[in-house]
Amino acid sequence: MDNSELELIVITGLSGAGRTQAMQSLEDQGFFCVDNLPPTFLVKFADLCAQSRGKVSKAAIVCDLRGGEFFSSLSEALSNLEKEGFHLQVLFLDASDETLIRRYKESRRRHPLSPQGRVLDGIQAERQQLEDLRIRADTIIDTSDLSSQQLRSQVAELFGKTQGLGQMAVSVISFGFKYGIPLDADLVMDVRFLPNPFYIQTLRPLTGEHTLVQDYVFGNTMAQEFMEKYLALLEFILPNYVKEGKTHLVIGIGCTGGQHRSVAIAERVGQFLTERQYAISVKHRDAAKNQKGGTAR
């Protein structure tokens, strides 16, 4: 087997962000998985897989801070894998500090970088150590709002049998700026300049998935001109991301509360990209959070 024929995924990221669930999902997809492999053995492991005469065609390895002093060599190991022509993807799992603290409290575990101190101190130290890897990652998944099953499904969607080499999956996420920008967003579009359906009494309880809201959002020349230009931009830049080897792109579209405008735009973007044969998932992170509330959307 040629090195480029081996599909190799390195899973890393913050402790508590879901690396184990991601690995289990890939294992269900037929990947040969190894947990906590020291980075110094990565190249040797990949060579063994490539020499297996087709017995191992796709493999996933979890590398994290449990590797201790060996973990610092991960960036060098990734560079060596690329030099040897392996088809390598780096999956980085992230989550908000609040989410990670809650998960640690629920599990009653200590953070590996702060075994005797505050969990938050360990999380912040780990973020700093992993910053270069996060920048280098091909795919970043923010697991803050995902259950274990949702994370496993998303990983399967990205790396399962339907995701072939050279394809790019696109996740379109609507959100509310009042709840924060998605951690894993590659591109962020702020659509708060569009007229707000929240101020129309009959539209206030609805979301942007409803036809009436969509008709209102797109019912003016400014919105129509914006969509024409924004879709043209996406049509231009996405093929260039594919050429650069990117396998997953997260497009975040935000309005004030994530209920009306961002949802309507995200639906339209998802439809547009689906028609152009991209593997699309559209998610509305905040659409149902404050439908009964009184704060502007």
UniProtKB/TrEMBL annotation:
ATP binds at G13, L14, S15, G16, A17, G18, R19, T20. Residues 168-287 form the RapZ C-terminal domain. Pfam families: PapZ_C, RapZ-like_N. The keyword Acetylation does not apply. Keywords: ATP-binding, GTP-binding, Nucleotide-binding. GO terms for molecular function: ATP binding; GTP binding. It comes from the Bacteria. This is Hypothetical ATP-binding protein UPF0042, contains P-loop. GTP binds at D64, L65, R66, G67. SUPFAM superfamilies: P-loop containing nucleoside triphosphate hydrolases. Residues 6-160 form the RapZ-like N-terminal domain. InterPro entries: P-loop_NTPase, RapZ-like, RapZ-like_N, RapZ_C.
